[in-house]
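Sequence, please.
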């Protein structure tokens, strides 16, 4: 291991490898090993969710599966047998034993794996999506971590040669959906996050900033109310649904940005009872939410380019361009004036455009962000200071 990495991480993995089983699998090639001509066998490992979460894990799974089918590459997915660092590391060991040489890991929960495992498997390429320098330092340094990755040499904590990490500017699509919602006429808005973590709050704090900016432009700051809460988990349950019932049914919330895996189910159940609206996250969730809970429920979705990231990186590996990715900690966001070319965006097809916020208005918004006319803070240390009223309830659990 590299210097200063916690030894207990390796010990924790050693103790659980034999206990890990293949919980879920899906091969695109019935033969074991790597596909002829490509030298690749791709595995995806889920984080705390599943490939049926109709959001984050499912998007990455489908991107891996589709790419593998097109390129005739064997593909398998694994679901760890528990929501622990040790179980996720055990799934890595199992994947390698089964022939994987490319492992895709979606979610900041894989920081421990990135710190402890890649050096043990130098011939395996690891793609860690939504794992940041802060995540790596926090896991490697432990309680002594200052909270600022700039205070450390992050390269000390992971094996750069066979790891690619990327994160996203979640604050940008968060801003976009908040801005669009207020421009489209919503005045009482809610945010329901999953686990209270930086990746969730970047979405949420961007949302608050977008709401505030639109309210300022329209001169209606005093008319806007924002409710803000995290569920403490990435799935819905009765406790969370009860809060959503109160928001929609008693407090008069009109639309909720549901941000965190399957936690949207609690918001959508309540919205269906009271005629409320939902904003989706990560992928275009309109077909899923509207299909199950009622047509017209989904206003838009704050998307990030999970599919593009998987496709581009796997293609790079196949084409022999791993050097373009190895050792990088990239933060992906707006790269063009054209919305469809960016790693963060709204869905053109399913967004409920209105006379007050048109598709053309969206293009104008993207251009302003790209050229720096609009600056969105990614700071998650505290709720943004805004003019609109925001009630932050903390976490339900």
């Amino acid at each position: 291991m590299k210097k200063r990495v916690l030894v207990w991480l390796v010990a924790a993995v050693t103790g659980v490898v034999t206990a890990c089983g293949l919980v879920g699998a899906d091969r695109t090639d019935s033969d074991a090993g790597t596909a002829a001509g490509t030298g690749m066998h791709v595995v995806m490992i889920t984080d705390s969710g599943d490939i049926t979460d109709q959001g984050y894990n499912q998007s990455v799974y489908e991107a891996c599966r589709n790419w593998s089918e097109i390129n005739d590459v064997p593909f398998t997915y694994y679901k760890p047998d528990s929501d622990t660092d040790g179980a996720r590391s055990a799934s890595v060991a199992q994947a390698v034993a089964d022939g994987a040489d490319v492992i895709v890991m979606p979610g900041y929960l894989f920081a421990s794996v990135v710190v402890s495992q890649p050096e043990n498997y130098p011939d395996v390429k690891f793609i860690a999506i939504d794992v940041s320098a802060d995540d790596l330092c926090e896991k490697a340094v432990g309680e002594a971590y200052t909270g600022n990755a700039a205070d450390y040499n992050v390269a000390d904590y992971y094996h750069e040669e066979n790891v690619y990490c990327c994160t996203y500017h979640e604050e940008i699509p968060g801003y976009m959906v908040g801005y669009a919602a207020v421009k489209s006429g919503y005045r009482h808005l809610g945010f329901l996050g999953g686990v209270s973590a930086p990746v969730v709050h970047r979405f949420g704090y961007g949302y608050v900033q977008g709401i505030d900016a639109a309210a300022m432009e329209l001169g209606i700051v005093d008319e806007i109310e924002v409710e803000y809460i995290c569920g403490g988990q990435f799935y819905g349950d009765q406790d969370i649904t009860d809060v959503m019932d109160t928001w929609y049914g008693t407090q008069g919330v009109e639309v909720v940005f549901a941000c965190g895996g399957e936690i949207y189910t609690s918001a959508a159940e309540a919205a269906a009872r009271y005629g409320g609206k939902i904003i989706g996250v990560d992928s275009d969730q309109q077909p899923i939410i509207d299909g199950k809970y009622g047509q017209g429920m989904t206003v838009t979705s704050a998307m990030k380019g999970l599919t593009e990231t998987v496709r581009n990186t796997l293609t790079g590996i196949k084409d022999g361009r791993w050097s373009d990715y190895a050792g990088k900690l990239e933060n992906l966001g707006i790269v063009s004036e054209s919305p469809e070319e960016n790693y963060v965006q709204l869905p053109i097809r399913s967004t409920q455009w209105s006379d007050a916020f048109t598709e053309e208005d969206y293009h104008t918004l993207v251009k302003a962000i790209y050229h720096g006319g609009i600056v969105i803070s990614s700071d998650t240390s505290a709720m943004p200071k805004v003019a609109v009223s925001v009630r932050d309830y903390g976490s339900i659990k």
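The first strand starts at residue 42 and ends at 45.
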